[in-house]
Amino acid sequence: MGYFLRTLQLLSTCVAISLVGSLDSWTVPTSTWSFVILCFCFVVTFIILIIESLALHYCFPFSWGDFLLCHACYLALFCLLVSIIYPATYVQFLFYTPSWDHAIAATAGLLSCIMCVLYAIDMAYMWKHYKLKNIPCYVHTLPGLLKILESAVACVIFVFISNTSLYLHQPALEWCVAVYSICFVQVVVAMLLKLRGWEKRLPLRLPTFHRVGTWFSFLLYVIAMVLWPLYQFNEKLGGQPHWYRDMSCVDELTNYGCVWDQQLAVAILTAINLVIYMADLVYWTRQVSVGLRTSPVYFIPSTKQRWSSQNSIYC
After folding, report:
1. pTM of the predicted model, to two decimals?
2. Where is the secretion signal located (predicted)?
3. Contact criterion met (CB below 8 Å) for 210 and 281
4. Contact criterion met (CB below 8 Å) for 86 and 36
5. Helix (H/G/I), strand (E/B), else coil: 10
6. Rounded to an integer, what distance in angstroms lies between the CA atom of residue 120 and that of residue 76?
7. Which of 16, 124, 252, 312 is most buried, judged by most C-beta within 10 A?
8. Could you give the CA distance from residue 59 to residue 212 in angstroms, rounded to a whole number?
9. Domain boundaries, the chain
10. Residue 54 exposure: Cα atoms within 13 Å on the Cβ side
11. d(CA 38, CA 33)
12. What SS3 state is found at 253?
């Protein structure tokens, strides 16, 4: 089942890359990012297929099952993003291109949707396997899923703020970018500590580390949630409150995308990530309130258990 899904993922990704690459849309940043995401999906999936075919996953010091679930979750979210952003961007800013190009863009968007479904099926299949076999898996828990969502939303924010004109003119907005980066690093470190089994190297317990890190990130996102809309959409602070006043949005010949839309997208994504951090914070606060002194049991299985469980997935 796993090999079959990997093959379908590679085929659909390869066709989508060919379609996107055939269109002259490189001057639009979101189109370029869509192409990069598709290439990333293809390369990662191809490497995983090769590793599994040669049984090289036995050599890795981390849980291969956790890695596969993370891979499927992230790529499903990224493909969903491409399926929404790429067709919308192409139709909006390259409206006067030939109708044949519009059909190609629509097909690429459809293939991105198919890729998203394939990665979601892969994730659901492994999820069901771990649940039925009662195999411990960090990503299979609520804290693990929340960490994936937090980092995935942060990655989407980074795509939009790659346009430095959104924030370089205002120190408060640069602070918001620093907030996104700091919180992203904190999430990645927390996930690596758990996935690699390094939590015992910390000077404090892992649940305490999670609580402190989540509180810190939550407070930083609250500040960003206030500063970003305030300095982007308040005219008194140099912002642009109305879409129709932004020349990048009303100019039909622009090739750089609507800056106001990008500012709004970052504000919405900041709010979404704030809600996710709030859910994460509620979880860890509840753990303390019910008197739990340790986090839920996520032990790293032994090498023999890990490889035997992974082999059973693809039988």
Report:
1. 0.78
2. 1-16
3. no
4. no
5. helix
6. 6
7. 16
8. 34
9. 1-140+300-315, 142-297
10. 7
11. 9
12. coil
Which long-range contacts does 14-23 make (Cβ < 8 Å, 24+ apart)?
14/42, 15/111, 16/108, 16/111, 16/112, 16/115, 17/42, 19/104, 19/105, 19/107, 19/108, 19/111, 20/86, 20/108, 22/104, 23/90, 23/97, 23/101, 23/104, 23/105, 23/108
The tokens describing 5, both together, are 């899904």
With both helix axes pointing from N to C terminus, report the angle between 303-313 and 99-133 in degrees, rounded to the nearest 10.
Answer: 130
Q: Residues, the chain, total?
A: 315
pLDDT for 143 beyond 60:
yes
Residue-wise pLDDT for 29-69, tens only, equals 667 788 888 899 999 999 999 988 888 877 777 777 778 88
Residue 280 Cα distances to 58, 76, 150, 227, 274, angstroms: 33, 21, 9, 22, 10
Residue 220 corresponds to which tokens in the numbers above? 């930083």
Question: Over the stretch 195-238, which tens digit does the pLDDT of each residue have?
Answer: 776 666 777 777 777 888 899 999 999 999 999 999 998 888 87
CB proximity list for 240: less than 8 A, separation 6 or greater: 232, 233, 246, 260, 263
Collapsing DSSP to helix, strand or coil, 169 comes out as coil
Distance CA 307, CA 65 (A): 9
**What is residue 286's predicted lDDT score, i.e. its pLDDT?**
83
The candidate with the shortest Cα–Cα distance to 110, out of 10, 7, 3, 15, is: 15
Question: What's the rounded Cα separation, in Å, for the pair 215 and 219?
Answer: 6
Q: Give the tokens for residue 281.
A: 């914070």
State pLDDT tens for residues 97-115: 555 566 777 777 788 888 9
